[in-house]
C-alpha cells in the first residue's frame, strides 16, 4: 500500500495528461540513442493506417525498413495474417475446424491477399450481419469496401505491396469489429445546450492495441463534429518552447542543480535499467520526474514507439489533421510547460526523490506499469466506476500543492472554455479529448459543467 501511494502522482499524470507522457517520451528517448525515421506511406493509405497501425497486426518497423511499398514477401505476409487472426480472435467468435494455409509464393498477388483475408474471416462462425453466403471472395471483399482497387481496376494479378496488404487487413479488422459491435468502449459524455452539442472523451496518453478500434459510436461522434478540442496540440504545438523549458541551456547539467545524493539516485536507476549514465543530464528535475515512470511502462523500444503513437489524444489529433478538421487547445503546450517548469527548484527535487525512491523499490516500475495497464483496461471496457476507483485509490486527489497545480484551477478554466463553446450562437458540434481524470473524478470538469446547468450524460 505504501508503494502504491508513492506512485500516486504518476497515476494522476497518466490520467490528467499534464505534458502528455507520450510527448515527453518523444524528447527523452533520443537521449537513449533512438533516431526517429520518417515512414514512407502513400497519401491514399494514411487515413486507414492511422487506425490499422494501432491494431497491433503488423510491426511498426515495417514503415522504416525501406520495403513498405515493395512486394510483400511470404514471411511478412505470414506475420500479417497471424496478427490479423489474433486480433479477430479477441472478438470471441467460435472458429470452424478449417486448416488455413498462407501463400508462400515468391510473388504474392493482390488476389492472393484478398482471398486469404476472406478465408480467414470465413473461418469464424459469423452472425448473419456479415452477409457471408459462400459466394465469390473477390466480390464479397469488394462489396464490403475491404478492397477498392485503382483507376485501372483491382489489378488482381499484380504483386501486392506490403502497404496494400496491411491496408486490406486493417479494413478487415475494422469491418469485423463494427459488424459485431466490438471495440473499445472508452469513457465518453455528451453535453448539450440548445442546438450546440459537445462530446467529451476521456483520454489515456499512452496506448495499447486493445484500445483500437474504438466503438463505432465514438468514431461517429468525432466524424459528425465540426471541430476538435484537446488540452494541448502535442503534434503541431510549440514543441521548441517545451524543449527549452525541459532542458538546461546555460551549459549546466542536472548534477549542478540537485544534491549529490539525488544525482547518485539517478545514476543508480540508470545503471539498473542499463541505460547510459548521461541519459538525463540535460533535463531539469521536473522533466526527469515525468520521464522516469515511462521507463517501466514498456518492455522494448518497439513498445515505446507503439505507446507513443497510440495515445488517444495523438490519434484524434492525427485524424483531425488528415481530415482538415479545426483543432483548438484548451490550454496549450506553453501553459502546461510553464505550469510544471515554474515549480521552485527545491520542490522539483523533492518530487524527483519521491519518484526515484519508488522506481528503485522492489517491483517499483512494475507497479507503475500495472497501474497504467489497469487504467487502460477499465477504459477499454468503458468501466467508469472501475477507472474512478483506480484514480481514487492511487491518485491521492487531495488539496495539496501538487494537486492544485495539476488539477484544481485547470479544471475550472477548462470548464469555462467549454462553456463558451456551448454558449455560441448557431449550431456547433464539438469533440473534446482531455485526460480521463478530468472527466471521471468528482468536482472536476463534468461537475463544473453540470453546475452551469448544461445537460450532461455518460454514453455507454
UniProtKB/TrEMBL annotation:
It comes from Brevibacillus brevis (Bacillus brevis). This is TraB/GumN family protein. PANTHER family: CYTOPLASMIC PROTEIN (PTHR40590:SF1), CYTOPLASMIC PROTEIN-RELATED (PTHR40590). It comes from the Bacteria. InterPro entries: TraB/PrgY/GumN_fam, YbaP-like. Pfam families: TraB_PrgY_gumN.
Amino acid at each position: 500500500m505504501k508503494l502504491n501511494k508513492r506512485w500516486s502522482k504518476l497515476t494522476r499524470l497518466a490520467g490528467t495528461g499534464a505534458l502528455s507522457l507520450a510527448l515527453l517520451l518523444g524528447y527523452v528517448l533520443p537521449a537513449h540513442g533512438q533516431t526517429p525515421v520518417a515512414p514512407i506511406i502513400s497519401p491514399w493509405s494514411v487515413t486507414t493506417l492511422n487506425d490499422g497501425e494501432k491494431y497491433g497486426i503488423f510491426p511498426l518497423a515495417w514503415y522504416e525498413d525501406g520495403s513498405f511499398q515493395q512486394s510483400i514477401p511470404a514471411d511478412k505476409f505470414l506475420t500479417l495474417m497471424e496478427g490479423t487472426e489474433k486480433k479477430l480472435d479477441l472478438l470471441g467468435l467460435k472458429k470452424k475446424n478449417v486448416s488455413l494455409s498462407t501463400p508462400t509464393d515468391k510473388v504474392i498477388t493482390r488476389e492472393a491477399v484478398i482471398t486469404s483475408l476472406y478465408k480467414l474471416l470465413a473461418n469464424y462462425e459469423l452472425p448473419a450481419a456479415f452477409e457471408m453466403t459462400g459466394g465469390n471472395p473477390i466480390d464479397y471483399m469488394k462489396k464490403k469496401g475491404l478492397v477498392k482497387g485503382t483507376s485501372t481496376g483491382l489489378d488482381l494479378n499484380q504483386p501486392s505491396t506490403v502497404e496494400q496488404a496491411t491496408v486490406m487487413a486493417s479494413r478487415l479488422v475494422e469491418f469485423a469489429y463494427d459488424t459485431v459491435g466490438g471495440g473499445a468502449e472508452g469513457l465518453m459524455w455528451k453535453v448539450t445546450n440548445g442546438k450546440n452539442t459537445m462530446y467529451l472523451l476521456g483520454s489515456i496518453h499512452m496506448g495499447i492495441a486493445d484500445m483500437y478500434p474504438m466503438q463505432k459510436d465514438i468514431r461517429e461522434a468525432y466524424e459528425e463534429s465540426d471541430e476538435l478540442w484537446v488540452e494541448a496540440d502535442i503534434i503541431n504545438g510549440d514543441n521548441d518552447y517545451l524543449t527549452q523549458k525541459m532542458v538546461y541551456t546555460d551549459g549546466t547539467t542536472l548534477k549542478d542543480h540537485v544534491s549529490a545524493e539525488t544525482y547518485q539516485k539517478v545514476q543508480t536507476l540508470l545503471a539498473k535499467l542499463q541505460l547510459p549514465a548521461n541519459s538525463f543530464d540535460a533535463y531539469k528535475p521536473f522533466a526527469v520526474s515525468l520521464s522516469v515512470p515511462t521507463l517501466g511502462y514498456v518492455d522494448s523500444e518497439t513498445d515505446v514507439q507503439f505507446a507513443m503513437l497510440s495515445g488517444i489524444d495523438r490519434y484524434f489529433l492525427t485524424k483531425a489533421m488528415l481530415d482538415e478538421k479545426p483543432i483548438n487547445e484548451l490550454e496549450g503546450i506553453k501553459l502546461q510547460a510553464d505550469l510544471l517548469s515554474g515549480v521552485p527548484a527545491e520542490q522539483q527535487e523533492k518530487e524527483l526523490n519521491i519518484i526515484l525512491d519508488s522506481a528503485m523499490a522492489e517491483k517499483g516500475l512494475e507497479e507503475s506499469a500495472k497501474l497504467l495497464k489497469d487504467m487502460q483496461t477499465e477504459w477499454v471496457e468503458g468501466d467508469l466506476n472501475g477507472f474512478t476507483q483506480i484514480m481514487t485509490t492511487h491518485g491521492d486527489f487531495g488539496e495539496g500543492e501538487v494537486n492544485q497545480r495539476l488539477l484544481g484551477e485547470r479544471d475550472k478554466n477548462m470548464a469555462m472554455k467549454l462553456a463558451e463553446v456551448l454558449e455560441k450562437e448557431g449550431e456547433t458540434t464539438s469533440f473534446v479529448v482531455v485526460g480521463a481524470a478530468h472527466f471521471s473524478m468528482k468536482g472536476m470538469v463534468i461537475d463544473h459543467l453540470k453546475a452551469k446547468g448544461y445537460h450532461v450524460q455518460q454514453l455507454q
